[in-house]
Amino acid sequence: xxxxxxxxxxxxxxxxxxxxxxxxxxxxxxxxxxxxxxxxxxxxxxxxxxxxxxxxxxxxxxxxxxxxxxxxxxxxxxxxxxxxxxxxxxxxxxxxxxxxxxxxxxxxxxxxxxxxxxxxxxxxxxxxxxxxxxxxxxxxxxxxxxxxxxxxxxxxxxxxxxxxxxxxxxxxxxxxxxxxxxxxxxxxxxxxxxxxxxxxxxxxxxxxxxxxxxxxxxxxxxxx
Length: 224
Prior knowledge:
Order of helices and strands: HEHEHHEEEHEEEEEEE
Organism: Lasius niger (Black garden ant)
Number of strands: 12
Pfam families: Rieske, Ubiq-Cytc-red_N
GO cellular component, one term: mitochondrial inner membrane
EC number: 7.1.1.8
Cofactor: [2Fe-2S] cluster
């Protein structure tokens, strides 16, 4: 028969925390620690098809996900929507493409005169040069020019000069068939251009810009 007796000679600490059992039991003291079971989060399982980053943004990757990483699907979808909207904005419509080109019938411009057209919101000068103007511009000493450029490098057909009518000084619109060199004159600050659109006098640093153009057929000019 087991006999349980409380000791009266043990220390107050043991008396308050332990019980002596006659069959050899030892005192057990409380540690005050609470053991909580570990909560493990399953690792994300993801499988994606081999695609380029561009394809992922446009179509979204084919994937299977679990856990918090599943929110990545929403992120990819959002990126796809943004890219599609951006591509839509950057894609030029038929109307925009039509406005980017300017077709001009050259037989409407008499020799020795300069006509003004509008191209991409800017004035466009098309000059029908006479033989005397062509010969005169060909004789100019290129080394003496502020922005050295041969006349032959600025025209595809010697009879036609095509330049953007914006002064390279502060963006004013020059006057055709005026100035000290018979080409173009900007009255705002006194820049003079010759019949090749080259700066000859005044504050403008550069020649008038030559846009991209071509002659697809006789008497037809297409700019842009």
